[in-house]
Here is the input.
Amino acid sequence: MVRIGTSDLDVFALALGGNVFGWTADRESSFAVLDAYVEAGGDFIDTADCYSAWMPGNSGGESETIIGQWLRSRGHRSRLVIATKVGAHPKFKGLSPQGIRGAIEQSLRRLQTDYIDLYYTHFDQPEIPVEEFLGVLDELIREGKVRHIGASNISVERLAEALKASERDGLAKYVVLQQHYNLMERGLYEGPLAAVVAAHGLSSAPYYALASGFLTGKYRPGTPLDGPRAQEVAPYLEAPRGARVLAVLDRVAQAHGTDAGAVALAWLAAQPTVATPIASARSVSQLSGLLAFTGLILDESELRLLSAASA
Here is the structure.
């Protein structure tokens, strides 16, 4: 178990991403993945109120709805840490206080719960003073609808500003940052942003932990690209660095008798400030490969090899 920042949230080493629920995983497949995750000891589920509004016929909130139906049918609520996000739903875009108020009621209804353990601001809205959205988030915590708050997709300047405002005004304070970070995408986080996270005792919960599936090794140079994430993977295949990273992942995976995805997650989990990577699975077989990482410990030489290949 790992602790999220300064909160009282102790969670499983892998957060299960819910972005595929209602998108590439239907209700039955989603239920099977959720069941298998909990049976393996998992307790940290991440979603957002906008998942999966991009699908034809969807309106947003489909992932929350599936998770809520599963929670209701299984009765696991008190054992789980449920994280969702606000600010990107088609009907509640942005971080205005009234928008947050409206969005959380819909999220609670879809999730079939009366509280959210971790509530993220999904995307920053720079024109809104941080005190405005922190104020309403603080109220939601006082009302018992939210336990802790996190930030996602925010600049280092605005994150620092929000943390300063929370301390100055006695408002709820972010405990975690969710950001794009993996072996193929390091520059967005490493440096000033990671330094602010560390200085304030926050944790990092990286999304796209497997670079849209590239770091599982399923995509290789010279093989046809298919699937919903193919276009996201193409730049990694075309870059010499991508081939270097895959070669080292294969080498380390073979040494441990595991697969490339587990090694990539283990590298990420070993980085400073990272508490729990977020990864999604649309089938139980995919999930099994991800769960292998939770018992995998890389030595310093292996971590250095991976870091050097991805530099």
